[in-house]
UniProtKB/TrEMBL annotation:
Name of the protein: Tf2-1-like SH3-like domain-containing protein
Leader sequence residues: none
A GO term for molecular function: nucleic acid binding
A matching Pfam family: SH3_Tf2-1
Family matches, as InterPro entries: Retrovirus_Pol_polyprotein, RNaseH_sf, SH3_Tf2-1
Length: 185
């Protein structure tokens, strides 16, 4: 936001900072349903147009109980909005996730990332998939201990995102045909 306000005059950022701060505090947050200033202080910040009119004295000198009640309503509404949006974000994120659970004894393909290999052994043209490899232990649904070949000098615990199920119908160990689950492209 600051970059768009400053434009060509990069050294004038400090004079533009109050404008950007006001715009940020005054803008309504999509997830909260309120502006950040209202969530913290219980009131919407006054803008230049609000200051031109004679202020309503009852608004400025209301009772403290009304202020606290209003602030509690804002907090509860903001909390409800955040919970609603958290569910929406989770639903959207879950569309791209896959749930694959492996058991001890299953055979899987394992993908070696660059950081798993020593510098002198890494080659970007070399196949990064090894397997089929047997699962020795299920640590949790995301971590598995594998029976790696002796020539692989790396830790034998892998995250499930670096594994895919091995289907015994394919005899070629370097085939890419086993990399995807049914229905994936």
């Amino acid at each position: 936001m600051l970059r768009s306000v400053v434009g060509e005059n990069i050294k004038s950022w400090d004079s533009k900072l109050p404008q950007v701060e006001f715009a940020h505090n005054h803008a309504k947050n999509r997830s909260l349903g309120f502006c950040p200033f209202q969530v913290v202080y219980g009131v919407v910040p006054r803008g230049p147009l609000d200051l031109t009119v004679v202020p309503d004295l009852t608004k400025m000198h209301g009772e403290a109980k009304d202020f606290v009640a209003n602030l509690q309503e804002v907090h509860s509404a903001a909390k409800e909005n955040l919970q609603l949006f958290a569910v929406r974000y989770k639903t959207a994120a879950d569309k791209h996730r896959r749930e694959v659970l492996f058991a001890a004894g299953d055979m899987v393909w394992v993908y070696l990332t660059r950081d798993r290999l020593p510098a002198h052994e890494y080659n970007k043209l070399k196949s990064r998939k090894i397997g089929p490899v047997k699962i020795l232990e299920v640590i949790n649904p995301n971590a598995y201990r594998l029976d790696l070949p002796p020539n692989i000098k790396t830790a034998n615990v892998f995250n499930m995102k670096y594994m895919s199920p091995f289907r015994g119908d394919n005899n070629t160990q370097d085939s890419e045909a086993n990399l995807l689950l049914p229905g994936e492209t």
